[in-house]
Amino acid sequence: MSACYDYGRAGIIGIGTPQANPTVEAEMRILLPQNALLQTTRLASSAPESLDRLREYLWSLPDALARYDTLRPTVFGFGCTGSSYLMPPGFQAAMLTSLEARFGYPIVTATDAIAWHLRALGARRIALASPYRGALAEAALAFWQAEGFEVAEVREIETAIADTRGIYALGSTDAGRVTAPLSALPVDAILLSGTGMPSLRLIADAHGRSGPPLVSSNYCLAMRLCDVANISAPTVEDWGPRLAAATALPTGPSQ
């Protein structure tokens, strides 16, 4: 709990999002309760190649956290799945342990949050859908297999360009065309991987339907951040109206 600020009485949630990612902040503001204060820092890299940028987002995390200066989040979320997929075994866990000791608050990565949520659901056999290609897609598959999950099906959500920035042009409709057939598979859960791809409309639409649960990077990250911060887990009934408001077309005179 944050008692020294007018805003954020439920807690201060720090979030790190890739520099051009338009989705993490938007979905976190929808998922988190209004009395949780969301404070964002950008994960930055000038590397021209996608995989190098993703690696640098995690390597430069100490600098991103230092930009909070005297602000101390209740918990911090690293909002990029691709970075974790590319790290050697053990590197991420060791780095986070060191950073938590240095900065004094817990740090949760999107991949750790996904693994936590899938296990909470009792999921062992999953279908994986992502906008990744080539080496990144292979790394994602290997990551979840190493985490002990059986990946029964892998589907690519196509982007217009090979650069991972192409993910930011996707909409939930693009993801929906790929995930809809997966709901008929004999799996325990469907994972939408990629924090830059909107997912909440699909999760809301799937709520209450039969078939395997649909989860995403941002959804799982928000759930885990709330858990660590001792905030009630967000439900569709809570955040559904905020999603509707956030995606409504503007009304009134044009600016």
From TrEMBL:
Enzyme class, first EC level, given as a word: isomerase
List its EC numbers.
Answer: 5.2.1.1
Q: Provide the protein name.
A: Maleate isomerase
Q: Name one Pfam family in it.
A: Amdase
Gene Ontology molecular function = maleate isomerase activity
Q: Which organism is it from?
A: Sphingopyxis panaciterrulae
UniProt entry tagged with the keyword Isomerase: yes
Task: Tell me which UniProt keywords the record has, alphabetically.
Answer: Isomerase
Listed InterPro entries: Iso_Racemase_Enz_sf, MaiA/AMDase
Specify the superkingdom: Bacteria
